[in-house]
Amino acid sequence: MKDNLQDKKAAALRATLELISEQGFQGTPMSQIAQRANIGIGTIYRYFSGKEDLINALYIDVKTRLVQYTLRNFSESVPVRESFLVLLRNIIDYFVENPAELLFVEQYANSPLITAATREQGLQMFAQVNNLFKRAQDENLLKELPLEMMSTLAYGAAISLAKNCLFSENKPDGATLNAGVNAIWDAIKR
Predict the structure, then answer these.
(1) What is the mean pLDDT of residues 120-131?
(2) 109: nearest Cα among 43, 53, 60
């Protein structure tokens, strides 16, 4: 029974992501989400108090998958530079494989619909990545900028490369993409 309920919740989240990427937040009523998820509207309200609550839950759901994918093949025992390259490439690959999630995160990361608590929860999920930035600073490998600025520069550049892969007429091949990832490291290293 519990698995069936989780399936319905997951279906509501999936339908929300699809519909918002197609027609935006304002153009997506709860009734349409229920219809796309093939569940009753009352079922959605069982899990979410309203559309804003649903958006916040979707944001955490997407961030959870992004973190899991980003941290695959990551080891704290690997030198900092190689760890950064793995994490950056994983972020790019994840968003290239999940363009609707890229568009959603880009649209809602700084939206007033995302609560401060949700935003903080999303940041806490990236603790291992933040620890890598701190380790790089401790090893005197990064430019002398605040950590938040360094992570914003690296993440923003990775997002731009993912968009280039998705939306550019001249999509980069693997070697060019790896060179781009190395360029991100070069931009933040000392």
Answers:
(1) 94
(2) 60
